[in-house]
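Q: My labmate handed me this sequence with no annotations at all. I'd like to see what the chain might look like in three dimensions before we decide whether it's worth expressing. Could you predict it?
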Amino acid sequence: MNIQLTPELEEIIQAQIVTGKHADAEEVISKALQLLLEWDKGYQQWVEKTRQKVDVAIEQLDRGEGIDGEVVIEKLREKLRTAREAQE
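A: Here is what I predict for the chain of 88 residues:
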């Protein structure tokens, strides 16, 4: 496979090689792809956990277990006031 890189990307790869952390461009690109796959896996896990939390929240709301939005906002404001006062 042949890939054409922008001058900026070539510069990044060369900078990584110069540091001595990587032997050549292939190693830099391989590491970058590994990190991309790890990031993507983590992102997908985050999405799934978020979906599960939303499902639980919807079920709670359906059972009437929700909290009025104004109450939540007032509690958050109080926490912020308390945090600010603690910093002074």
